[in-house]
Amino acid sequence: MRREFLILGACCLFAAPAFAAVRELTLNDAYALAQERSESLAIAAEDIRIAEARYWQAVSAVLPQVNFIGTVNTQNNAGSSINGGSSTGTRKDRWEGRLQITQTIFNGFREFNAAAALKAEGRSKTATLERNRQLLYLDVGDLFFQIIQLDQDTAALQEILGTLDDRRKELTDRVSLGRSRKSELLASETELADTQASMEALQGLRGAARELFAFLIGVPSSQFSLHAGSTLPPAEKLEAYLWKTGVRPDIVAADESQTAAERSTSAQRGQFFPTIGVESNYLALEDPERVQEWNIMVTAELPVFDGGLRIAQLNESKARLRASQLNLSRARRLADHEVRVAYNNFISSANQLVRLRQAENTARESYETQKKDYELGRASNLDVLAALLRWKDILRGRIGTEAKTQTNLIALQVAAGEPTPAESPKTQIPNTKGPRP
Questions:
Q1: Cα–Cα distance between 180 and 21 in angstroms, integer?
Q2: Which residues contact 73 (CB under 8 A, 6 or more apart)?
Q3: Architecture of 23-64+108-273+308-427 per CATH?
Q4: How confident is the model at residue 5 (pLDDT cuts 50, 70, 90)?
Q5: Do 403 and 350 contact (CB within 8 A), yes or no?
Q6: Helical pair 381-415 and 309-375, crossing angle rounded to 10 deg
Q7: From the CB of residue 114, how many other CB atoms can be counted at a distance below 10 Å?
Q8: Which end of the chain is more exposed for a tag (fewer CB within 10 A), N or C?
Q9: 110-177 helix and 27-37 helix, angle to the nearest 10 degrees
Q10: Residues 187, 191, 197: CA angle, nearest 5 degrees
C-alpha cells in the first residue's frame, strides 16, 4: 500500500507542471506584458539615456575647467675639482603643485547652442519612444481582438456543426422512413463536411494568432485566455480627434528635431565669431619654497581662413534645418489624414455592426420558422438549409465586424495620439523635459 502511494505521489509531482494556471488577460494586461518584452522600447530608452549623457557633456564645456598639476624635478648637479681633481655630483630634487583654471568667456555661444540642440534631441527621442509605445498598443490591440474574433467564430462554427449534425441525423431517419429524399440528406452531409473543413482552417489561424500573441507578451499560448469589454466607449466628434493630433508624440518629436536643427545652425554660425578665453595659474605648493607666484592670461582667437570649412558646415546645418521643417509639415498633414481615415473606418464599422446585429436576430428567427414549417410539411429541406447558411454567414459577419470595430477604435485613438492605458516600469526613461537652456 505504501509503495502505491509513493508511486502516485511521484506521478502527481511530475505531472504538476503540465497543469499550469491559465491567466485571464485584458487588453491593458497584455499591453503591459508586451512592453516588458519589447526590445525595441528598451533600446529606445537607452538611446534617450545616451542623448542625456551627450547633453551633460556639452554643458561641461561651458563650465570652467579646474586642474591641479603636480611636477617633480630631479637634477644631478655635477662638479669638477680645480687643478684636475676628480669630479663630484650631488642630487637635487624639487617639486611643486600648481592650480590651473581655464574658462571660455565668449565664442559665439557655440557651447550653449550645442547643449540646447542636444537637449531638444533628447526630448525628440522621448516623444519618439512614447509614439512607439502607442504603435505597440495598436499592434497588441489588433492581435488581441483578432484572437477574440477567432475564438468566437470557433464557438459559432461549433454550434452550427452541432445543428448540421442534428439535421443530418434527422434526415437519415426520415430517408429510412421514406419521408425525405436522399438528395436532401446528401446536401446536408455536403454542407456539414464543408463546415468541418472551415473549422479546421479556422483552428490553424487561431493557433498561429495565439502563438504570435504569446511571442509578444511572453506567456505560453496554452496559459492565457483573453477577456474584452462588452461595450464600446462613445466616440467623440471628428474635430476633437483632429485637435488632439497637435500633441501627438511623433509631431512633438518632429518639432523638437526642428528646434535641435535651429540651435545646431546657430552653433555653426558661432564659428565665425572670435573665441576669447582666460587662463589662471597659481603656485600653491613647492619644495624648496620660494616666492609664491600667480598669473592670469587672456587670449583671443579670430578665424581668418580655413579653406571654406566653416561655410560648408553652416550650409549643411541650414539644409538639415530645412529638412526638419519639411518633416514637421509632413508629420502634421499625415496625422490629419490618419485621423480622418480612422474616424471614417470606425463610424462605418460601428454602423455596420448595428445593422448586422439586427440582421442576425432576423436570420435566427427565420431559421427557426423554416425549421417549424419543415416539420409541418410547409417548407422543403432546401429552405431550411438555406436559412441556416444565411444565419451562419450573418453570425460570422457580425463577429468579424465587432472585432473590426474595436480595432478601428484603437486605431482612431492612436491616430489622435491619445495616451496609452498602461505603462511598464521596465521601459521608464530618464526625465529629459527640464527647462530649455
A1: 50
A2: 93, 94, 95
A3: Up-down Bundle (1.20)
A4: very low
A5: no
A6: 160
A7: 24
A8: N
A9: 130
A10: 145
C-alpha 309/C-alpha 312 separation (Å) is 5
Q: 109-161: per-residue pLDDT in tens?
A: 888 898 999 999 999 999 999 999 999 999 999 999 999 999 999 999 998 88
What is the pLDDT, as a whole number, of residue 183? 80
pLDDT at residue 427, as a whole number? 36
Reported pTM: 0.79
Q: Give the chain's end-to-end CA distance (angstroms, integer).
A: 81
Query: Domain limits of the chain?
Result: 23-64+108-273+308-427
3-state SS, the chain, equals CHHHHHHHHHHHHHHHHHHCCCEEECHHHHHHHHHHHCHHHHHHHHHHHHHHHHHHHHHHHHCCEEEEEEEEEEEEEEEECCCCCCEEEEEEEEEEEEEEEEEEEECCCHHHHHHHHHHHHHHHHHHHHHHHHHHHHHHHHHHHHHHHHHHHHHHHHHHHHHHHHHHHHHHHHHHHHCCCCHHHHHHHHHHHHHHHHHHHHHHHHHHHHHHHHHHHHCCCHHHEEECCCCCCCCCCCHHHHHHHHHHCHHHHHHHHHHHHHHHHHHHHHHHHCCEEEEEEEEEEEEECCCCCCEEEEEEEECCCCCCCHHHHHHHHHHHHHHHHHHHHHHHHHHHHHHHHHHHHHHHHHHHHHHHHHHHHHHHHHHHHHHHHHHHCCCCCHHHHHHHHHHHHHHHHHHHHHHHHHHHHHHHHHHHCCCCCCCCCHHHCCCCCCCCCC
User: What single letter denotes the amino acid at residue 64?
Assistant: P
Q: List Cβ neighbours of 199 (8 Å cut-off, separation of 6 or more).
A: 154, 157, 158, 161
Q: Which residues contact 414 (CB under 8 A, 6 or more apart)?
A: 134, 135, 137, 138
Which cell goes with 360? Answer: 442576425
Return all residues near 166 (Cβ < 8 A) that are at least 6 apart. Answer: none
Q: What count of other Cβ atoms lies within 10 Å of the Cβ of residue 261?
A: 24
- Given a contact cutoff of 8 angstroms between Cβ atoms, the answer to whether 189 and 166 are in contact is no
pLDDT tens figures, 154-184:
999 998 888 888 888 887 887 787 777 788 7
d(CA 249, CA 416): 10
Contact (CB, 8 A) for 107 and 270? yes
